[in-house]
Amino acid sequence: xxxxxxxxxxxxxxxxxxxxxxxxxxxxxxxxxxxxxxxxxxxxxxxxxxxxxxxxxxxxxxxxxxxxxxxxxxxxxxxxxxxxxxxxxxxxxxxxxxxxxxxxxxxxxxxxxxxxxxxxxxxxxxxxxxxxxxxxxxxxxxxxxxxxxxxxxxxxxxxxxxxxxxxxxxxxxxxxxxxxxxxxxxxxxxxxxxxxxxxxxxxxxxxxxxxxxxxxxxxxxxxxxxxxx
Amino acid sequence: xxxxxxxxxxxxxxxxxxxxxxxxxxxxxxxxxxxxxxxxxxxxxxxxxxxxxxxxxxxxxxxxxxxxxxxxxxxxxxxxxxxxxxxxxxxxxxxxxxxxxxxxxxxxxxxxxxxxxxxxxxxxxxxxxxxxxxxxxxxxxxxxxxxxxxxxxxxxxxxxxxxxxxxxxxxxxxxxxxxxxxxxxxxxxxxxxxxxxxxxxxxxxxxxxxxxxxxxxxxxxxxxxxxxxxxxxxxxxxxxxxxxxxxxxxxxxxxxxxxxxxxxxxxxxxxxxxxxxxxxxxxxxxxxxxxxxxxxxxxxxxxxxxxxxxxxxxxxxxxxxxxxxxxxxxxxxxxxxxxxxxxxxxxxxxxxxxxxxxxxxxxxxxxxxxxxxxxxxxxxxxxxxxxxxxxxxxxxxxxxxxxxxxxxxxxxxxxxxxxxxxxxxxxxxxxxxxxxxxxxxxxxxxxxx
Lengths: 229, 449
Known about the structure:
The structure holds two protein chains of two kinds. Chain A has helices spanning 4-37, 44-55, 78-82, 84-92, 94-97, 111-125, 157-161, 183-186, 189-197, 199-202, 215-226; strands spanning 63-64, 67-68, 168-169, 172-173. By secondary structure, chain A is mostly helical. Chain A has three domains: 1-36; 41-125, Cytochrome Bc1 Complex, Chain D, domain 2 (Orthogonal Bundle), CATH 1.10.760; 141-225, Sandwich (Immunoglobulin-like). The model of chain A has no long low-confidence stretch (mean pLDDT 93). Chain B is mainly alpha-helical. Chain B starts with 7 loop residues before the first helix and ends in a 17-residue tail after the last helix. Chains A and B meet through helix 1, helix 2, strand 1 and strand 2 of A and helix 1, helix 2, helix 6, helix 7 and helix 8 of B.
């Protein structure tokens, strides 16, 4: 049977051995760090963004690289998913973008601070994460989005920057709101215009935010939507 | 108790109880926010509540470890604590730093890194404080009349925990580097050196409560902590799957973290075997309940539930979801919460001289907290699995998926209410013991072994 001194030897040798292996692997990880994280792109902007990220404890709600608090979305790929224009609009007044839903603190960032945070998040999005987060691998049940709308002209700039953050068109875009394929055959021009102008007026309690659009921009979007037959 | 200076432990334990109540309160704030009742958002937003909740946890557990050290080390070393007045200085400054940190969270003052939220200037005060603590404990051991394995393992656990705090204080511009070394603190604490502390405290309690020969208990202590480091050090790799570190961590972390339950299993088998070999009936049955309960619940919470999502193929989907919170709750409770409760319930009658061992409310506290915690873990597990399938596997929007899991948080809060009732009854028992007194000192030659 094992004696106490043998047990102690097991503890000491095991600890020493595995600490040594751990330090070796750490050394190798450090060696590969710059390449895997694109450290050459760590600009002053990115560094400032990280500072803002930490000094506001964003990880206290969000996750980044899957690390954080699970109360708000993971932001690892957010810049690729939603685009900077939408995210800047979002940061200006987060609660207006998700009316009546879980709240984010309004930080009143300056334009420069917003640029820094987004630069940081964009940099994070390019880290080699061994394929995380994975693409969803179960197909959702078929919904109305099975029709796909073919329009020859490209969508208006604001549509591409803002609307697709939440809506899909031809299979591309967000999953917050319904897909917009065929929307032109469901509603008329006046309704769509009224809807986008003030969603709460048409459907109180809706999750659709009132987007900061000029009249001209809205008109352009509505004209585009009506063609999506 | 054998020495007057052990009395300081009582006050550390009292602080523990207070911080735990606060921790639970902030837990409820988060629970309500998750079911849409976020009326406190403007005063205590979620990130404040969350940081307060987890930091209070760490602080009360550390406070408990410190109290345990001040109680156990003099007894093991067979001498008074070195400079006991300074232990008071240490306690008071420790509390002040904690209060400032938590208050700071409410004014958006952060270091802002998960589990290491307290601002850097305060980190240095923590270091000073812990140095003082280690000095007092270290000097007591240095001048000890007896050098037991238990006290040495305890001391090295505390020392290593202090040293491992340092890599977490370095500032990195690179998030991956930042995260890499942050886990040296967080992982190597809870799945490494804290288990040294845990093993030592369990060894002390088992020796006292079962009367099994010290040599036997301490031999297995080496085996248990040996298994801990064998699996836990390279097991750090399970935090290095997806943060920008090389791919071989998937294999290294997967393999070794899958072995981590072995250490907890060994701990549970060890405790149960020592109990079965017991040479005497210790009157403090409740202490035995908490000691064995700790060994078993830590295996379930930390060992088994950790194992459940540590394999990379599973972790790919569960990483960054409520599954982690599920594992975290029972792991911390089973391994460290119950450990501190065990020490407290063992030490209280010794410190105060009031031998109210066997009373119904003590058992109610034991079962209410544990059943409550199992319920909370179950609710989080269901919410977590739902989240994984809806958000990760089906690609549903984050908030839409969260909406679907709200109902489980109602369940969680019901279970948490039971847990809270248990905690409050435990505290009622704590208060009933009264204050520590010199009258509780053992007469020379008298033994409490």
